[in-house]
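queue> pop job 88
queue> type: inverse folding (structure -> sequence)
queue> payload:
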């Protein structure tokens, strides 16, 4: 038997109204199954000092595969996802008997995570796990972005590049599906050791930043793979639904603060500021190419075309991705 661990970090308060989202995330987890009867999925809820009763929400789902663990926040802790993620990763690396049975702990093979306001697509774990091995060590896939107001809005993809040195140069804040990351467990330990030596970090995720922690961890992953000669794998399908702008464990910064942290993370990993700007521009054009051609139109005409775009584009998108839209609706209801 081998074990796949999914970390579910959550910080729920009366103000952030996180519990309803978290319950949807758990429901998407309960639909995950593996065809291989020798494998088991274990969900580790890391309650990051919530004021709401997260443990009761876990018990209500009545799925024995989900385990609860609470992390007590320290007075000097920053509001960052990194603390909860590192806590969960340590439980896995140390094969903690607090969350795993002895048999599960002995055979931990892979780890991924699910943010408390996001959703796993049906078959998400199985599809990614099928591409993971000790030689590849890391796998990612596409994901779909959605909002409670508009439903599914767009799909984020990244062209697969087998050369890790090349993909490291391409890995930017605007075009990598960070939440789909799944690591082989021994490789995760190597990432921890690498960032400890190079950046003085205490865990895989950087607890000194309060925005863009996922970008930082992705760059650390690719750096480690490049330095140690590991390969990577890609699943060319949507495996994950990301809910847009609901706030969470990390601080809810302004747009200027988010941009600041994007630059901070890129500089930390030695990527050029000018390359980041180029990636942002090209990423926006690629996501919206037919409409972006409107940049060549006279300024007076653009305002008249904008309502047409806002009306037609969502309709075309939903028709093109009817299966995904239906599945998302089912997960939310």
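queue> result:
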């Amino acid at each position: 038997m081998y074990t796949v661990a999914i970390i579910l970090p959550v910080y729920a308060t009366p103000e952030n109204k996180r519990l309803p989202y978290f319950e949807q995330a758990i429901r998407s987890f309960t639909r995950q199954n593996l065809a291989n009867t020798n494998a088991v999925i274990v969900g580790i809820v890391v309650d990051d000092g919530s004021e709401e009763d997260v443990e009761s929400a876990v018990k209500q789902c009545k799925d024995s595969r989900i385990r609860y663990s609470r992390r007590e926040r320290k007075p000097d802790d920053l509001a960052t996802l990194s603390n909860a993620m590192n806590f969960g990763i340590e439980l896995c690396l140390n094969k903690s008997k607090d969350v795993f049975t002895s048999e599960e702990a002995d055979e931990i093979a892979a780890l991924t995570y699910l943010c408390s306001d996001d959703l796993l697509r049906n078959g998400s774990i199985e599809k990614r796990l099928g591409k993971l091995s000790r030689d590849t060590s890391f796998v990612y896939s596409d994901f779909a972005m959605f909002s409670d107001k508009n439903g599914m809005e767009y799909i984020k993809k990244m062209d697969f590049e087998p050369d890790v040195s090349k993909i490291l140069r391409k890995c930017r804040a605007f075009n990598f599906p960070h939440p789909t990351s799944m690591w082989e467990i021994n490789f995760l330990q190597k990432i921890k050791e690498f960032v400890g030596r190079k950046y003085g970090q205490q865990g895989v995720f950087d607890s000194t930043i309060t925005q863009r922690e996922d970008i930082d961890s992705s760059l650390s992953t690719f750096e480690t793979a490049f330095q140690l000669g590991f390969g990577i794998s890609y699943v060319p399908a949507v495996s994950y639904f990301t809910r847009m702008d609901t706030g969470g464990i990390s601080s809810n910064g302004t747009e200027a603060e988010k941009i600041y942290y994007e630059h901070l993370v890129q500089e930390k990993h030695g990527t050029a500021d000018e390359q980041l700007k180029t990636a942002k521009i090209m990423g926006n054009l690629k996501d919206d190419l037919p409409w972006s051609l409107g940049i060549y139109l006279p300024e007076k005409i653009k305002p008249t075309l904008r309502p047409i775009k806002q009306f037609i584009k969502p309709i075309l998108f939903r028709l093109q991705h009817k299966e995904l839209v239906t599945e998302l609706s089912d997960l939310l209801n």
